Structure formats: structure tokens, C-alpha cells
Amino acid sequence: MSLIQLLPDHIANQIAAGEVIQRPASVVKELMENAIDAGATKIDVNIKESGKALIQVVDNGSGMNSEDALLCFERHATSKVRTADDLFSLVTKGFRGEALASIAAISHVEMRTRLEAESTGIQINIEGSKVVSNVEEACPQGTSFEIKNLFYNVPARRNFLKSNQVEYRHIQDEFERVALAHSEVHFTLHHNDSEIYNLTPGILRKRVVDVLGRKTNDRLVPIEESSEIVDLKGFVLKPEFAKKTRGEQFLFVNNRFFKSQYFNHAINKAFQGLLQERTFASYFVFLNVDSQKIDVNVHPTKTEIKFEEEKFIYSILLSSIRLALGKYNIAPTLDFDRETSFDLPAGMRSQPYNEPVIKVNHNFNPFTPTQSAPSAGSRGKKSENFSEAITKHGFGTEDAKTADWENFYSVEDSPKEEEQAPLIEEETSHGISQFLIKGNYIFTPSKSGFMVIHARRAYEQILYSALIKSFITNPIESQALLFPIEKELSKNEITAWESNAKMLKQLGFIGEIKEDELHLTAVPSVLQDETIQKALDRIIETIAHREIEKGEIAHELVHSIARSAAMKKMNLNSIEAVNDIIERLFQCENHTYTPGNKQIIDTLSLESIDEKFR
After folding, report:
1. In angstroms, how far apart are the furthest CA atoms of the chain?
2. Does residue 586 sit within a domain?
3. Among 149, 167, 26, which Cα is nearest to 550's?
């Protein structure tokens, strides 16, 4: 008896579904792309419980006859490929005939479809690849799919689905990608009976604005280039509107969304010197390439594509975006009549500056013979020696060269963050008990050597411990803002904020959504003015751009508040303040690591110190 056997079709389909249908968003993508291939001009998507209860996609495309309606659920049944050569000249979204077979293998499917020339259509019900009904029915032209109980017969896969919020975000991402690629098609999206999108047909610019929000229109920089290798069009957002999180980077080839680190690098390089640190440029780039020079069949979900002439496309993409930024006076230009020695790096131009502090001794007499020039080592950080200063300020006598420059004039630069706290020492009978270095590190002796404490991380853990205890029993105390904060949000971020509004209010954030903006009227009282914006950015990133289980999101949000609040300048200029933070740290249940798993305490043994000096 042979050990090798052919798998039954329903098992083979379930295995294929593991590659093609990873989550509810995969179903939405495949059904929307099928509707595009069917020539639909209107596509309605209706979601319930983030696709776990229902995914409905209705289109007004060409529809199918009774024979094709059954065949479309067979594995590898396709109208797009007749020969192997067809794989290298594809212009449609789907072509392998795996999507509907995979969906039908792991869900309950109800499909209605009708050709324009027919008076009646077909209704088919399938459960786990088995056709349970096939009847004629009066229905509109086009095709309607209702997918229920996704992964009902693959419980392990269903258990691995994320929270409703995370799964819905993936659905929204797939919807936006298809909608952006086809601005000529009318799309709607409803989630739990609430309308999220109603995108009417129009030009590409209108579609981008409809998806991202009305204020985007003035921020778009158009790009366009035509060559024998590639035709390129689209938009990039002006550098000052770069986001601190990824998510608004869209690449399309022949109206198919794809991901490419290589081309993303070209776009980032075009923005070099224009973006603030840790921000990401937003872009919507559409490539039109000869279909015979790309291979879209290298990944199950078709998001990775091989390009025959990718190096040339890289160069064209880079130069086109640089040209567009320069054309709209965004990129830096060369001006040989302008003094450039005073220019700041682009990332520092928006940062506040501090004027030097000037100290003058009004009783100073540079010609007093008892004063002498300081040694080179004693001048520390002074900006120039005395003789240079005398010449610079117009004093020309030789006697001036021997004067005490430190007593005459000094410039104190604004201290850096790590230099703000002075060295603190406390003497005991055994020498120094504890001291603070560079405002961030506390050294204190232990039996075996020295304990090193990261002061800011210690404060973060102290705040987190206090806030989480308060959050469990009572709302975190809020402080009303004199002037409300207005922050523009994307559709995805608005949905995330509204979904978590109750929890955010418990955390001390009180506000409402007006059109595309969040109007925040109160924030947690633990936040200082200089830390509010950073905390808000982290909160939005957490709820809208990270995959976090529902049970963990409260801890993540409290951590975001504590981390932001801990960024304020710490007053550790006394031994009492240092002792207080150490005592409060050791009262925390976890005083070794922050909630973000950053180390707070380390120990330097005397043996390791001795080893360094051998």
C-alpha cells in the first residue's frame, strides 16, 4: 500500500486558505479585487464585528451565469489564465483561482449573482466547501457575497485572531489600498451599521483627500514622470507634515498595491535633510510598467513584486520626487550669494533655541597688574581667551594680554539635558555615600560595589505604579486645558479614538471628534505642558498603529502617559531629592525594569572595577 495519498479537496482548500486567507481583511481584499476584475463601478463593503460575524461585498459588475457561479468556487478555476505565458502579461487583480475556494473552505458563504442579459440570477450557499443550496432568484445585476462564521471549522486559526479593533484596522487598510488604486469606482464601507467611507468617483487627488481628510489637499506635492521604462504619477506630502508613525506609505504598480523596502529607500533618500528625526514621509506613488517586465506571482497575497528593471525605476523615482520638491520650493537649493555658515540642519529648525547667558564683572579693570592670565586648563568651556577677546572688542594694549579673562567676560551655553544636574556628593565616615552624574545616573554603594540607577527610568516606573493603581479603582485625575488642543486625525485614528473613548476618559483624556479633528479639553494632571503633545502622540500610536490585545491596552496606555510625564526636567539638585526617588522606586513591586522592559538598576562589582585597572 502506498504511503503517499492525494488529499481530499476540502483539506487541500483549507491548507491553501492558510496562505491566502490570513484574517478577515484578506477576505475583504480578495472580494473587492474580484469586483474590480468584474468591471464594477460601485462596490459596497459591509462589516460586522470586524469581519468575524459578517463580511458582505456587493458590486454592480458583470455577474456570472449558473455554470460559472459554481465553477468559481473550484480550486484553480480562473478566467484569467489559459497558458503559462499568460502569467507574464497579467492585468487583472486575481488570476490563480484560489481565493473563493479558500474562503468557501473555512466559512459559510452565500452568493447571489446575475448577468445583465438575464432576468433572474443564482443564489448559492456553501459551508466548508460543500454546496448546500443552488437556486434561481431575483437579484440585481452583479454579484453579492456574504461571508459568515469565518474559520468556524479551523478553531486554532480563529483563536489566533487579534482584538476586534486590530482586525478592523487591517480591513480598513485593505479597503483604502483598493480604493486609492481605483478613483474611478464608487466605494462605501460600513462597520457595525456606521458609515466610515462614501468615496464618490473622481480624479486621483480627490480620492487621496477623501481618504486622508480635507486638509490634505493643501499638503500634496504632485509628482509625474514618463519614460520608456516606467510612467510615474502620484503625490508626496510636504515634509513638515511627516508622521511619527508609519502607515501613509502607498506604492502601486499597474494599480496593484505592493510593498518594497527598495523603492521606499529611494523615496526616503529624496527627502534626505528635509524630515525631522524619527518621522516618516507620506506618499502615494503609482507606477505603470510593462506587465511582461514584472512578476506578481512571487507571494501568496501578491504584495511583493519582482521588477526586471528595478535599478532604473529606483533612479527615476528618486529624481522625480527631488524634482517635485525643488519645483515647489521645498527642497534646499544652492545660492552662491547667500552665507550658509549660519544654516541649521533641517531636523533642528523647528526646535526652540536658548540665547547665551552673558555675565559681566562691572568692577573689572583689565590694567590691574595683580591679575594674570589663566592657564589653558582653567578656561574650561569659555568661548575664547582673553587676548583674543581684547583684540576682538577693540582694546589694543599689551598690558591687556595679562588680564584675567574669566573675571572680565564669560559666556555660559545653555546646558544639555544630561548636564543640567550638578554633581551631588554626600560625605560619610566611609567617603562619598551617593552622588548624581550627568542628571541621569545615581551611584550608591552596595556590599559588593556600586548600584547604578537610571533616574529618569526610575521616575517612569514610579509614575506607572502610581497611575495603574489609581486607574484600577478610580479615574486618573484630569486637568482642564485653558486652550483646547486641536489635532488632525486620520480615519483610522478617529475610529481608534472613538472605540477607546471610555477608557481614554478613565485615563484623564477628555475630548470629542469634530469632523477630522480631535478637540482635547482635559488631560491627565500628571502631564506638564511640555509633555502633553508627546503623550498624545504616543496614545494615538498605541491605539491606532500597534497590534495590542484588548487585555493589555490599558497597561500600554498608562505606560505611555508615565513615559511622557517622566520626560520633564527632573529636580535632583539635592541629596534629599535623590534619596526620595530611590525610596519611592524600591516601594514599587518591580523596581528593576520599566513597563517597556528597559533596565533601571545595574550593579558594578568591585571585582569588575578592579579588572578594568589591572
Report:
1. 113
2. yes
3. 167
Separation CA 26–CA 412 (nearest Å): 60
Output phi, psi for 190, to 5 deg.
-120, 140
- pLDDT score of 76 more than 80: no
Together in a domain, 46 and 116: yes
Residue 498 has pLDDT above 60, yes or no: yes
The three cell numbers of residue 589 are 513591586
* 60 close to 142: Cβ distance less than 8 angstroms: yes
pLDDT band (50, 70, 90) for residue 14: low
Distance CA 317, CA 197 (A): 31
Three-class DSSP labels, 417-434? HHHCCCCCCCEECCEECC
Q: For the segment 181-199, what is each residue's pLDDT rounded down to a tens digit?
A: 999 999 999 999 999 999 9
* Average pLDDT value for residue range 259-270: 93
> What pLDDT, on a 0 to 100 scale, did the predictor assign at position 201?
97
Q: Do residue 409 and residue 423 come from a single domain?
A: no
CA torsion, ordered 451, 455, 461, 462, to nearest 10 deg: 100
Residue 294: in which H helix or E strand, if any?
A: strand 294-295
pLDDT surpassing 70 at residue 104: yes
Q: Is the pLDDT of residue 421 over 70?
A: no
Domains of the chain: total: 4
Residue 177 pairs with which residues in a beta bridge?
Answer: none
Q: Give the DSSP per-residue string, 537-586.
A: HHHHHHHHHS---HHHHHHHHHHHHHHHHTTSPP---SHHHHHHHHHHHT
Q: Write the pLDDT tens digit of every residue in 308-366.
A: 999 999 999 999 999 999 887 665 544 444 444 444 544 455 555 555 566 666 666 66
- H/E element, 109: strand 108-114
Report the 3 state secondary structure along 228-290. Answer: CCCEEEEEEECHHHCECCCCCEEEEECCEEECCHHHHHHHHHHCCCCCCCCCECCEEEEEECC
Q: pLDDT by residue (tens digit) across 201-239?
A: 999 999 999 998 888 899 999 999 999 999 999 999 999
Q: Are residues 387 and 473 in the same domain?
A: no
pTM over 0.85: no
Domain with 283 in it: what CATH number?
A: 3.30.230.10
Task: Look up cell 500634496; give the residue.
Answer: 220
Res 410: pLDDT = 35
Residues 567 and 464 occupy one common structural domain:
yes
Distance CA 118, CA 340 (A): 73
Q: What span, in angstroms and rounded, lies between the C-alpha atoms of 348 and 120?
A: 67
Instruction: State how far the Cα of 364 lies from the Cα of 281, in Å rounded to an integer.
Output: 55
- Report which of 182, 177, 186 is spatially closest to residue 204, judged by C-alpha positions: 182
Residue 373 has pLDDT above 60, yes or no: no
C-beta separation of 97 from 76 below 8 A: yes
Query: What backbone torsions phi and psi does residue 562 show, to the nearest 5 degrees?
Result: -65, -40
Cell of 476: 486618573
**Which regions of 334-462 does DSSP assign to beta strands (E)?**
357-360, 409-412, 427-428, 431-432, 435-437, 441-445, 449-454
- Give the count of beta carbons closer than 10 Å to the beta carbon of residue 2: 4
Structural domain boundaries, residue 233: 205-327
Q: DSSP labels for 299-332?
A: STTS---EETTHHHHHHHHHHHHHHHHHHTT-S-
Between 378 and 242, the higher pLDDT residue: 242
